[in-house]
Amino acid sequence: MSLQPSDIYSLDNLENINNNNTTNAPPIRRLNEVIISQQNEKIAELTEQNGKLIKDNDQITQKIEEKDLIIVKLNEEVTI
Q1: What is the pLDDT of residues 5-25, one digit of tens each?
Q2: Residue 28: what pLDDT?
Q3: Which top-rank group of organisms is this from (predicted)?
Q4: Cα separation, 15 vs 9, whole angstroms
Q5: What is the largest CA-CA distance in the chain?
Q6: How far from chain centre, in Å, is Cα 23?
Q7: Cα-only R_g, the chain
Q8: Which pLDDT value is given to residue 63?
Q9: Every domain of the chain and the residues it spans
């Protein structure tokens, strides 16, 4: 297969597109770095919130277990 004039035109376009992408790469890279940094900050915030929620949940679970134990003891006293 030989190249046709239209193929060369297409190759020139591809080269121009490639050059444009290379030229635009640093701003895009910086934008990606900013986005990744923001996402990492949000992940850190959500991780901290999750830790607090887990702690709160553990405290609530402990209180429920304590109340359940009281109920069991009261039921034992009533049946005696």
Answers
A1: 555 555 556 565 555 555 556
A2: 87
A3: Eukaryota
A4: 10
A5: 102
A6: 30
A7: 32
A8: 97
A9: 27-79
**pTM for this prediction:** 0.54
Chain position carrying tokens 């020139």: 12
- Measured in residues, the chain has a length of 80
Angle at 5 between CA 21 and CA 1, to 5 degrees: 100
Q: Which residues contact 3 (CB under 8 A, 6 or more apart)?
A: 11
Q: Scan for tokens 């887990």, then name that residue.
A: 54
Structure tokens that stand for 47 in this block: 């991780």
Tokens of 38: 């923001």
Q: Please tell me whether residue 3 adopts helix, strand or coil conformation.
A: coil
pLDDT value of residue 46:
97
Tokens 């050059």 appear where? 19
The Cα–Cα gap between 40 and 47 comes to 10
